[in-house]
Amino acid sequence: MKRAFIAFLLTVMSVVTVSAQTTEISDVVLQNSVQEDGTQLQLNGAGVRSKYFLSLYVGSLYLPGKSSDANKILYSSDMKMIQLDIISSLITAEKMEETVRAGFKNSLGGDTSSLQSEIDSFIAVFGEEIEVGDIFKFVTSGQELKAYKNGKLLTTVTGAEFQRALFGIWLGNKPADKKLKNLMLGAKS
Q1: Among 170, 156, 167, CA closest to 75
Q2: Which CATH number fits the domain that encloses residue 135?
Q3: What's the average pLDDT block by block, 10 residues per block, for the chain (189 residues)?
Q4: Range of 116's domain?
Q5: Could you tell me if residue 154 is inside a domain?
Q6: pTM of the predicted model, to two decimals?
Q7: How many structural domains is the chain composed of?
Q8: In angstroms, rounded to a whole number, what is the distance separating the alpha carbons of residues 82 and 76?
Q9: DSSP H helices in the chain
Q10: Residue at 102 is within a domain
Q11: CA distances from 108 to 61, 68, 102 (A)
């Protein structure tokens, strides 16, 4: 009886420990803390990107320390990461490219000409078909942005202005989804 009780307690403690290290949103399990290029990043906030009542992906923002100030995050040279976990089969490479190009246009106030070559280089990240379960990570140190798909480095783009424009798609004045922006900035759903 005593062994059964101890086994039960150990099981409960391990479940509590695991759940304290992760956050689950729309069946996507996010780590509350990740290591990127030697820097410890904390989950700042996350939510579901929806359009026309359809859930498309879980977007999450990781920072060295919590912040709800979008401008401070955009202009900071600290390491940061946006992660997109694809949860809908409606997302295709073509739709993602179209959406991200529109996001850059919104992020840059309608004029993408100053970053067009960087944008074109970055868009190659969405060149292969996209499937449910794919994970995109955009990691930046403020000067250099690395884009990954399912852990594989696909491209590196330099320049602080490009990094701000990319993160501005989700955190800028005209974000892809205002509710998602607020959730990524730490608001409670």
Answers
A1: 167
A2: 3.50.70.10
A3: 49 44 94 92 95 89 96 95 96 93 96 95 93 97 91 95 96 95 89
A4: 23-184
A5: yes
A6: 0.87
A7: 1
A8: 14
A9: 2-21, 70-75, 93-107, 116-123, 160-171, 178-184
A10: yes
A11: 20, 21, 10
